[in-house]
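>> received
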Amino acid sequence: MRKIPIAEAIGLTLCHDITQIVPGQVKRRAFKRGHVIGAEDIPVLLNLGKEHIYFWEDDEGLVHEDDAALVLAKSAAGQGLTMTEPNQGKVNLVANTDGLLKVRAKSLNRINDIEGIILAALHNNQAIKRGTVVAGTRIIPLAIESAALARAEKICADDGPLLTIKPFRPLRVGIVTTGNEVYQGRIKDGFCSVISQKISDFGASLMRQVIVPDDPDVISREIRQLIADGAELVMVTGGMSVDPDDTTPTGIRRSGAQVVFYGVPVLPGSMLMLAYHEDIPICGIPGCVMFNGTTSLDLILPILFAGERLTRSWAVGLGHGGLCYECPECHFPNCAFGKS
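>> returned
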């Protein structure tokens, strides 16, 4: 690139966006790449602190910041993502569907270790709404060496796309509610309405709710029946603590399901249980779900609805970031809860 005094720039074409910043008021693109400078632009550019402009000269060893940001975004974007046009040297990746954001974090770190390249993303395993900006690419200098960009492209290509959105599946959900006090009609169940609201966010449908006594054989029988009738996710509520008369964990085990974990390092919601009956997930729901707006259940549901099979090591990793602030006004998932 050739540096030219602003007074000699009339008639030349800008090779990059020029940004205007008014502290506390606005940050915007004042001039777009490709703008032909006119005499009327000179005072404006001077007020923006531009006493020189740079004239682009083709160099086979360099890639312009806008072009490089587009290449990087295209290389990083997998299923469920679209790109914006370059703006001030930056390209955003935007979700075109609701789903679970998947980020190959180690590869992301390798890309950001390349001098002059920036790729910032939201956290892995975050539930995303259509239209959400999930990542942004940027090239720090006005041009970058093509060899450096090629290294970033290769990292993106290793082991599949760097960033993807896995769409949520509209699962059929069955609920088994346990508790003698509910079964006998002494109190009204509070779980079903809460869970119905949570699963509706993923496009799921509630097959039915079955209310049963604190009998592990009955609990296991109803779990198996729901699965036989087509349930793709079974949620078992009530009786998940360690009290001797809380028989729900035993009932889940007797259904023939393989328990992955019982207890997670998350507060609120530590008494969460996950098991699988072949490929059908069975969740034992902690009691705090009825009165805490955000719990461990909100961390597990997006992953289950995206069709991923969870492991004990995943649950163990929840401890780092697993303490909820319980803010008076909840902003989850736009907070640190459940993010390591």
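>> The CA atoms of residues 260 and 311 lie 6 Å apart.
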